[in-house]
UniProtKB/TrEMBL annotation:
Region (Disordered): 30-60, 75-98, 155-183, 666-698
Pfam families linked to this entry: Noc2
Subcellular location, principal: nucleus
Protein name per its UniProtKB record: NOC2P FAMILY
Comp. bias regions, Acidic residues: 75-87, 163-174
Nucleus recorded as keyword: yes
Keyword Nucleus in record: yes
GO terms for cellular component: Noc1p-Noc2p complex; Noc2p-Noc3p complex; nucleolus; nucleoplasm
UniProt feature, compositional bias: Basic and acidic residues: 50-60
InterPro entries (alphabetical): Noc2
UniProt keywords, alphabetically: Nucleus
Amino acid sequence: MGKLGKKARKFAKKNLQSVLKRQRKVKTFFKKKASKRDEKAQVEDSDGEREEKYSGRNNEVEDFKDISLDAVFDEDDSDMEGDDSDSDGYLSEDTSCSYNGETRIENHLEEYNGDLSVQKKQIHLELAKKMKRLNNLKAKDPEFAKFLESNKEHLQTLRDEENYSDEEESDEDGRESTNEMGKWNSSTVDSLCKLVKEQNNVPAFVRLLNGYRAACHYGSESPTIVEDSHTFSKILTFMFHEADNIFRKILGISESNDRKEAILELKNTSKWKTLKPIVKSYLRSTLFLLNEVTDSQILAFTLTRLRASIVFFAAFPLLLGRLVKISVHLWATGKGTLSACSLLIIKDVASVFNSNCFETCMIKAYKAFIDHCKFVEPVLFKHQQFLKSSFIELCSQDLQKAYNKAMVSIQQLAKILQLGLRTKKKEAVKKICSWQYANCVDLWVAFISLNIRDYDLQPLLYTIIQIINGVAVLFPGPRYMPLRVKCVQWLNALSVSSGVFIPITSLVLDILEYKIGKESSKPGKDFSFSSAVKLPKHWLKSRNFQDECVFSAIELLAVHFAQWSYHISFPDLATIPLIYLRKFHELTTIESLRRVVKRFIDQVEQNIEFVRKKRDEVTFSPNDQQSAESFLQLEKSGGNAPFTKYYASVIEKAGSRNLVMNGKISSLEQKKSKGKRQQIPKNAMDVDLTVNAEGNSH
């Protein structure tokens, strides 16, 4: 072999691995010998680089376990932090306390605050005078000053002993006061309620608040001072109906005033400083009750009454955070009236308080929605739809902040899909092909569809369309047919709401090309198609699967064609789908499916002729975009196209078909659960309070 030329040697020096390896050896030979610790670190670094280089995909798959759909949201509760005392929640009923005396509430508060400030000033003046005299004596008489210094330690020990004895006496007095509170019975409650209503008596109201606190903690503390369920319900019902009115009357706030500024402006006044512990006791006890009670009627009634006092939470940020947490939990886990009442609380907090409260409410609601949409069953479907629609309703209160959160969430969905498309591992597929992922996409599709006409949501629209198409590409097989159908439904919804043309024909025609097994003539077991993202294998060989493929394809194409049935380009849009449908009609041997496909073909052809005739009559050129957009607008408003009536019949049949299928599934589930016993309320008092609450509310 001849000698290498100059260019070849230069290339070898720069690129050949053997040359580079030899150069590295020469360099390391002349380097200073490294310590053992440095060598170990270099080995670990090189091993880490090799692992990242050669097993990058494995690391990506491991990352799937750490990626969650709500991980991008960091809850900021900084504005909901506040001072919450560690007291037991009971208010003092001592005779020396400011709450005692047979006086009206307003006068009592003013007198108490005035007397307190005067007493403080007098005490400070007297102490200042005495300290001045003492300092003068020290300056005049040095021996007296030495005497004070020598006896200073002895005086300190005497003070400690007095303080210790005072603490023991106060503890004993506290225990005696809780024991003297005694059992609450119905007659005691009636007499106290009468004093509060007729005379606005402060001590009576404070005693009722202590009784209310004991009732809310019933069963969680011992001894229990509430005598029976009738007394329990009387205390709670009275406080729910009267507490808010009393608070507003004292502070001079009207019932219709729900502005947080109304409370914040009064925070430095003497009235509020005296009333604050009373309001806080009521709110804390009510929140504790919401955490303890299990009966949905009591919870709904409590939330309804607490909603009237929501403005008072402005002074207690920590309690406001608890209220949001409890309300979101009840909204997600409750049903019917309870969920609706919880939603009203969440919406009020988001609108009454600052923007950070809105973000907190939105984030907590989004996380609760994700946690409760991991599975979809016909029984839970209605509640999950309510959660979705109510969350979108909440987002509509501040669309700018909702837009930012939606973008973050959608980008997280895109990140998960991107990793799935790159790795295509089992963990990736499982995370994307799940109801949790599908429901998140469905949520933001509904949000965009509702608001895109009034707001600029084009970035969200573009990103979510890319995600949906990516999901459809990732799952092409027949077992994922329900997920692909949902992808087309999402695209149709976005296209209808935005007015943007989104091609879906290829995705729909792929459904018709699924191969059916040899046993296709046998009907399969009843299976809820709407509550699955992946079909069982045995269902692929059933006649039901073939029927579902054809019916779904016709319904999806009908929605797509109905949107563009009056457009000037409809004949061109429908050409390729008709070719595929005619071919499918020729190959299919099942007569019922042939009839469905044939009718669809006929209706589309009629609409093509209708549009062509109108198109032949126009005088404008294809470049005239404005005239092309206004084509057949009068006919569209009147609904005169042949395809319009057919589309209505298709949608009606699709709805009835789903109802029948879901009805069969739900009846099977009811038969399975017939033998199960119904749960008995944990607390017998729950039922009694419900009856009382309903009676009083009427």
